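Reviewer 2 asked us to include a model.

Predict the structure of this chain.
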Amino acid sequence: MLDTEFLTILGLGFVLGLRHALDSDHLAAVSTVLAQRPSLRASGMIGFSWGLGHTVVLLLVGAVVLVLRMPIPEPVAEAAEFGVGAMLVLLGGMLGMRLVRERWHVHAHDHDGAPHVHLHSHALVEDHGHGHWWRDSVRPFCIGMVHGLAGSAALLLIVLSSARSVSEGLIYIAVFGVGSILGMMLVGIVVSLPVLWSLSLGRPVFLAVQGLASLGSVAVGLALMFQIAFGDQRF
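Predicted model (structure tokens):
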């Protein structure tokens, strides 16, 4: 039977998992994906896939760390964090390139003698096919795996210091993962609301929100890379 102290630790792990979903790099990465798939159903699946990939990596790395009883070396942890920053720049850049590639421009013509202006893209083709949940989930799953690898060092230090056995450590990581999955599903739904709202206001507002998601991801990624590369240096 699980003792009270371990149950308290598990409860803390669940809460920390929920809180972990609110980290700025997580929000930036998920926002770039959600900006391209504006729907509540998609947002929940994206959050679930991200959290699942995050948890899978934590469990795999955690099993190795707990068996060997040694923390992740600091250079490896920093390299993983730097990789997250590079990934955020890539995600934001890809979204920005997609917006540019669609070549949005204004068309003006008359409807029954009244001038009318609307946005048009020669590259945009409406897709009336039905997507497959597994195909749409691969990308956020892989993004979650990268974040899981980068965030594993700090978490596993806590696990090593508190877990009395490999099984207890893995249970703690799994509970933390469940918290992060639920947190990311909630975050996905909340982040998708302004995207859906912007789409209802018209294509120009929707494009502006996509552009902000792109710039935000690049900015957070560059800031993270700069922090890892230069630390607290001041110029």
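The helical segments are 4-20, 24-34, 40-68, 74-101, 133-162, 166-200, 203-230. The chain has seven helices and two strands. We have added this to the supplementary material.
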